[in-house]
Amino acid sequence: MSPRTSHQFKEIRESRKSQIMDTALELFAREGYAHCTIAMIAKKAGISKGLLYNYFESKEQLLNEILESGLTEIWELLDPDKDGDLSAEELKNFIHIVFRLMRDKRDYWLVYFGLLMQPKVMEQIVRRPVVKNIEAYFQILMNYFKKQGYENPLLEVTMLSALIEGLGVLMIYTKDVVEIPDTLMDQFEERVINLINNRQEGQIFSSSQKNEK
Amino acid sequence: MSPRTSHQFKEIRESRKSQIMDTALELFAREGYAHCTIAMIAKKAGISKGLLYNYFESKEQLLNEILESGLTEIWELLDPDKDGDLSAEELKNFIHIVFRLMRDKRDYWLVYFGLLMQPKVMEQIVRRPVVKNIEAYFQILMNYFKKQGYENPLLEVTMLSALIEGLGVLMIYTKDVVEIPDTLMDQFEERVINLINNRQEGQIFSSSQKNEK
Amino acid sequence: MSPRTSHQFKEIRESRKSQIMDTALELFAREGYAHCTIAMIAKKAGISKGLLYNYFESKEQLLNEILESGLTEIWELLDPDKDGDLSAEELKNFIHIVFRLMRDKRDYWLVYFGLLMQPKVMEQIVRRPVVKNIEAYFQILMNYFKKQGYENPLLEVTMLSALIEGLGVLMIYTKDVVEIPDTLMDQFEERVINLINNRQEGQIFSSSQKNEK
Amino acid sequence: MSPRTSHQFKEIRESRKSQIMDTALELFAREGYAHCTIAMIAKKAGISKGLLYNYFESKEQLLNEILESGLTEIWELLDPDKDGDLSAEELKNFIHIVFRLMRDKRDYWLVYFGLLMQPKVMEQIVRRPVVKNIEAYFQILMNYFKKQGYENPLLEVTMLSALIEGLGVLMIYTKDVVEIPDTLMDQFEERVINLINNRQEGQIFSSSQKNEK
DNA sequence: AATGAATGAGCTTTCATTCAT
DNA sequence: TATGAATGAAAGCTCATTCAT
């Protein structure tokens, strides 16, 4: 048997890593980070505890890589022209993607938000380079609203963020109480996009009211 | 010397209990629930570890009582006529209070939201009677929007909740990054109230735009 | 109100003490000594923990007094002429009393035997004066069998003791499996007494055999 | 270096497990179950506390496994043809083994009897499958005496059990007072066997008496 | 690369005992 | 005499991490 090339080795390593990270993410989401043990993760991933430490230097490092990888992945989807400028179309697309991600990567959000709330963890996350990008995006949104002539762009960005994250939180923490139906999510998304597209129609609490008159 | 009266004992117990709960809440918020040890709480509260167990049967029980007590306290402020009916004025007042609480009881929210994200913890919280009240409130809001002629009350309630909770989350998790200024909070609140009061004006992203044309 | 006489005080003290001891014995028997807490005992006795320490200087001391008091009480019933001599009648009476005690003071035996098996506890008990009496009684029994012309009195005493204690153990530890009926106990006692009274008939395993012939 | 084979691991586990159980049994016997700490056991076994929990999920579980293993081991020795039938020879052999075990496994008995007396522990033991076997044995003995024409087999079995267990108890709890000599044990055993073999001669308190007349 | 036995620091929890009142 | 809040030493147990194989 010819020895594997170093390239093959690297590939194997990478796929093992993802496998571990996926497993861990699922467990973190289901059981909570603190409640998960290395033994649980290793067992579910079908490897030994020792091997896990071959790939990640600590439980915390494993978490960090999961968070970073998730953020990067998301970021790549959201990444606009990087010209710092956002067209209406791009913003619409951005929102659409965010909503899709919220559904598809629910596990990830669950963990991400959960940890965001743990003060000590947050401090760590904040220092990561990817988070800088998020702050950049915040600026891009600010610019968008400024260019559209909004008087108080910060307020607009805050509301948009709040709407989206608020929905995210609702989705996540009502999971055990009541499932938010997909149709409601779609309507929600539609409304948010309307709000941006068409300010006249876009009253947050009145989309269907005009019929009334 | 005669022993303390049972009244005195009760007073001691109650004040000690609150003292411990306050201390614990502060620490949970600052350090995260998982990261806090009983020793830390006891030390900060100036008592022995043993005494803590005289008042709470476990760390988890301590947490539960904190959550329950906070929810109850909040609930009392929010509680409307209980006639199941909500006037516009009451809704306005409700929102105002929610915004005030968000600022005044930030520690509480930090812990509460943080735990809401921990799956196992959430299951516990959901079963508590106080949470039933929250569900009741949800119905009251639904009724309100229905009576106002909204076509899709569930969507409206969801958006209102998302807006408020989203702001809450923003407030909390941006704490270490950037402080949301009080003026922004006020504007946010004003906007939300406008949205409800006056549907024509209440476009979420345009309150100040009409002047522009 | 006239102050109580010191005699009255002493009476009150004594009755309180017995009350605590009775309660503790019952609990020890039901829950096991190690598993019982001072708090449990005090609560069941309707007094405060502090007061218990007013009467007994430690949990261990409480146990010791219970054991000692039980042994003394039993001993008084068994106490023969003290002339070191035992008539057949006295031995018969002795056995009868032992059997009665086994039923009436089951709680006590349960605790007593249970503790006898705990090495460290045993060491303590053995040093108590009452136990010396037991050893004395052993001698008296030895003498009895010697005088009756038995070749190996030690063996006889051992067998008698084993029979009685063995029944005691059976009674106690089969409690949760199967109750030994009173009639069986009576038959057992009758047999033991026969064994001593009438050596010809007293085959341990043959009371009903004569029909066989 | 290649990792250990699963066979090697199994061997390590098994030998470690017995090592811990042996150590614990000895300590339980010497110090009493309640008085023994995990730290003591681990130290005496030359391992860390943590490792102990790698093999036994709790102190109580460790105890249970010790008891179960002892009972099983004993049971294998006692197990007759399983035809539910007991010949005189088999019964004799049974008694012989019991007496030998009493001497050889004194530590075990000490712990076993000691715990039998602790109510809460007993409940646990009783539910174990091995104990069912003991009940089965009880039935076999009953059958034996019935077939031999005894009028009250239950009484006979009770007496036999009491004799044996009573001796066991005597052996154990007189350990600190006076050692029962081996010769006495032999005589005791001989007498019990005689009692069964030869009903005419087998008077419990008179084996050597007939010469006297 | 791969294993899981082994470690040990540190956690939650218990409870006999003390003590101010 | 009587209370129960308060203590603190010590227990059982957990688990991230290391390491010999």
User: What structural class should be given to the helix and strand makeup of chain A?
Assistant: mainly alpha
The parts of chain A where pLDDT drops under 50 for at least 5 residues are 206-213
Shape of chain A: globular
Which sequence of SSEs, written as H and E, runs from N to C of chain A?
A: HHHHHHHHHH
- N-to-C CA distance of chain A: 80 Å
Binned, the helix content of chain A reads: over 70%
List the defining traits of the structure above.
mainly alpha, DNA-binding, homotetramer, globular, disordered C terminus, 213 residues
Explain what the structure shows:
- Four copies of one chain form a homotetramer.
- Chain A starts with 5 loop residues before the first helix and ends in a 16-residue tail after the last helix.
- The first copy, chain A, is mostly helical.
- Chain A is globular.
- In chain A, 72% of the residues lie in helices and 0% in strands.
- At the A-B interface, helix 1, helix 6, helix 7, helix 9 and helix 10 of A face helix 1, helix 6, helix 7, helix 9 and helix 10 of B.
- Chain B binds a DNA duplex (21 and 21 nucleotides) through residues 1-6, 8-9, 12-13, 16, 37-39, 47-51, 53-54, 57-59.
Summarize it:
Chain A has 213 residues and is mainly alpha-helical. Chain A has helices spanning 6-31, 38-45, 49-55, 59-78, 88-104, 106-116, 119-126, 129-147, 153-173, 182-197. Chain B binds a DNA duplex (21 and 21 nucleotides) through residues 1-6, 8-9, 12-13, 16, 37-39, 47-51, 53-54, 57-59.
